[in-house]
Design goal:
135 residues; mainly alpha; elongated; DUF7803; DUF7803 domain-containing protein
Length: 135
């Protein structure tokens, strides 16, 4: 069955599953990668830049989000997978880095990382779902 474009749009509105650009900003922010481990962590990771380029192109051509539903969903899925993989790799790299450091240096790094986690948790708890961290 072939639906006209307006019928597809009506379906999106009635199903109440219309995605917006704001949907991409919900959830935890993408991880910040320390420069000491960045090359190892990012090696071979799909950065989603091609999908993001397609999303921006769709938005530029169509000027509104309802016509770019597929691109929004694809980018969100890719970004979630990318961020999960980066977090896992960062945890592994930090463990390896900490194991190779002198004990006092490793303790200092652990303290620094814990304070950064605490700061991010505070920032995330102070921002509602529609607010973003700006810095």
């Amino acid at each position: 069955m072939i639906l006209s474009h307006s019928a597809k749009m009506k379906s999106c509105y009635t199903d109440n599953v219309l995605r917006k650009g704001d949907d991409l900003m919900r959830g935890p922010p993408s991880p910040v990668i320390p420069k000491e481990i960045a090359s190892h962590v990012l090696e071979g990771v799909e950065l989603c830049d091609g999908i993001l380029r397609n999303l921006f192109l769709c938005l530029q051509i169509n000027d509104i989000e309802p016509f770019c539903q597929d691109e929004i969903v694809l980018y969100r899925q890719c970004a979630e997978k990318r961020d999960k993989e980066i977090r896992e790799r960062m945890q592994d790299s930090e463990y390896k880095l900490g194991s190779s450091m002198p004990l006092e240096e490793a303790k200092g790094r652990a303290t620094q990382l814990q304070s950064e986690v605490t700061l991010l948790e505070r920032l995330m708890s102070n921002t509602g779902p529609s607010k973003r961290i700006t810095s």
